[in-house]
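EI: anyone free to look at a 478-residue chain?
SC: sure, send it
EI:
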Amino acid sequence: MIDNDIRVSTKNPLSDNTLNKQKIKTEPITPFDVIDPTKVTKPNKQDPSNHTSQNWLNYNPDSVFEKFLKSLGNSPILSDNLKKLLLNNQFINHNIKNDPVLNTLFETFIKNIEMDDKEILNFLKLQQNTYTKFNGDFFNSLRNLYKLNSNNEDFKIILRNFLRSYDCFVSINDTYKSINSTLKNIHENIPDILKEPFKELLDKMVTENYTKSNDLNLNLLKNEILPFIGRYVSKMNDFGPVRDYVSVLVHNLIRLETASKDTFSTDLDNLFDYIKFNLQIEDKELNNLKLSLINSYETSSNTKNNSIDSLIDIIRTGIKDSNNVVNKGVMEDMADSLLFNQSVHIPLMHLFMPLNYNGMFMFSELWISKDYEDYTENKKSNYEKKETFNVFITFEIQNVGYFETTLLLKDNNLSLEILIPNKFVNHIDKIRNDISEIIQNKNISISDINVSECIKRRRFNEVFDNLAERKNGVNVVI
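SC: here you go
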């Protein structure tokens, strides 16, 4: 017979005395952590996959910002690809002109970038004014009010709510474009048996005048389309592309809710009421502010430029319709670089200019950083901030060469560094004197000017040292 009785006996049997007796733990205390010099100690290595570390400065491989920093060195360079369209005759003759899809668009693009001095200035101003949605007299007035009431927390909240609803309201057409693209991708990735009923739901959406039909479409999306996709994901355990598209769809639904007329109207009324009663703005000035909002909205809605439009057309068509692998790759790289240069992790304004000037082709890029420095003349003076502009300009001219310029403007004092091609090295003194004379004629004092040969082309991240400041933030400058 097998004995199933398992007994455990200890050498020190328990008794009431031992249970009730309190034990005193003694730990050896060493005054110093002495290291034996005869032994090699292995340094502690932190596991990068351990995200529970209390040190927030530790490297996190899954951080969006760390991935952004890695992509700085791998992302396509806009100037390298646009240079092919403007300066590389071999690429143009063998690829663009032999492509029936891009040949006509390329001729239109070349014609549209013909500019004189005035048109060049207007082209750069257009990019600067359309860099964000918050441009015009109305938003300049809001900026001035904010500077005068920077410590008013209530005003900050009301202003933030209005800017958020305004952004969503004026972007409603773009939001619906994203939603339609997302729903199309979901339709392509669900099983065939569900495609027909899903398409019937999509056909119910009103595709004309999204502003007026927003409430109907939003109700359809929230109560029918999104639950349909949710039931599919939960029952089929689809954790593939469909689930990723759902995340994008939910984000856009939130934007649609904020873009409703009621939300925008409420936030706008709250803003004007607060300005009138709490900031004590007169009725005449408030009416001018309301009128400037209408003008700013109409101006931003009607802003167009043939040069930019023709460039976007050739990029979009080359990606979608071109059968030339080389052309398609160049257009995809240009699209990637244009999108990357607008990253929220880049605290810089990026302007670019493809140009046909008197039959000479060139391409230029401008990176602009605006910083604020604390400034007080003495201890009794009022605290204020002064603007400092740091500009990095690159331009390459057909049959001339590549130039770089770094410009620092502070308190109307200009510091300038110019890098020139090797062919102009013998004319450095003349270049320095001519540029100095031009700047002084503009009533700008020069603190330093340096002209030297360009040995190596630099990227913007090699010039600006403030990119790491975005580790814990994004570019939300308005």
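EI: The CA atoms of residues 368 and 391 lie 5 Å apart.
SC: 👍
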